[in-house]
Amino acid sequence: MLKTTPFTDVHIALGAKMAEFAGFNMPIQYPTGINQEHMIVREGVGVFDVSHMGEFWVKGEKALDFLQYITTNDVSKLDAGKAQYTCMPNGKGGIVDDLIIYKYSTTKYLMVVNAGNIDKDWEWVNRIASGGEPSMRSDWGNLSLENASDKYGQLAVQGPKATELLQLLTDADLSAIPYYSFREWNFAGVQGVILSNTGYTGAGGFELYFPKEYGKQIWDALFEVGKPFGLAPIGLGARDSLRLEKWYCLYGHDIDDTTSPLEAGLGWITKLDAKDFIDKEFLQKQKAEGVKRKLVHFECLERAIPRNGYEICDAEGNVIGNVTSGIMLPNTKVGIGMGYVQTTFAKKETVIYIKIREKLQPAKIV
Length: 366
Prior knowledge:
Blueprint: H1 8-13, E1 17-21, E2 24-29, H2 34-43, E3 46-49, E4 54-59, H3 63-70, E5 83-89, E6 95-105, E7 108-113, H4 118-129, E8 144-147, E9 152-158, H5 162-167, E10 182-187, E11 190-196, E12 205-211, H6 215-225, E13 232-234, H7 236-245, H8 280-289, E14 293-300, E15 311-313, E16 319-328, E17 335-342, E18 351-356, E19 359-365
Helix pairs in contact: 2-7
């Protein structure tokens, strides 16, 4: 049986194409189609059901120490009301998951993890908390962990018109909530909604977290005030094309348990000099020696659609890497993608070749 969200019946009633994603029955696209949904978010405003994401509470006097140890970014830099993008290394040089940490206080944090990794992440944080490998530390005091994933619904309202629309449903001054900051406030008549100035589209907007029993109330309120804005529901297909256009990684494609943060271009969230954390020594050594492969972004020079798993070659047809994500952009009709290549081919403007049905299609690193 597939899991459902508070909005599954709504998606079906709207004629969405439904499919399994991370164990959930999720809308991939609506009758409008992925290309149009992509442009609605880029030019107006759309709403995504992302209630499948996972939420873990981390509380206690050593909550900060624990998060510092299990993640690569410097959590101590967060003020209350701020959020931080980070990842959890797996003790073998790879990535357990990428996630966002929300700071409420020095003793209370919220971790938001990827839907497909909820069970894996929950097992991981509990293993580390109990002193299991690779940490062998258990000095976390009165640390409390709670998997609240089944309690919350989440909607991402994204696009250049998102803030103006959302402001009609709350007296919180959304313009006073900076990027990667959040506030708990009344929204659409529901108390304690987390209003987070985050999102994975690059188009601006907020992500809303709320007790799932209020999902329909919030959805209906959004679409009532959203009519003049052209608000539309957006599926996971356009969510993927939007994040890829912005060059945001997708776990399971561009990063996973076999890719290091440094290989994936996530050195900016890997604070090697700030603290001790799992895999610090491995990553220090990797940085000193240099990575042998890098995640790159590329544009096809001819009409072609790169796909996950396609080989990346040099001019002679020698395999130098592989595509991890790829699409044809709805607006420009240019094929773009991400993939790992040998470091010598990772420099910007380098011409590479994507092997598509035995033909080498030229592309350049951008």
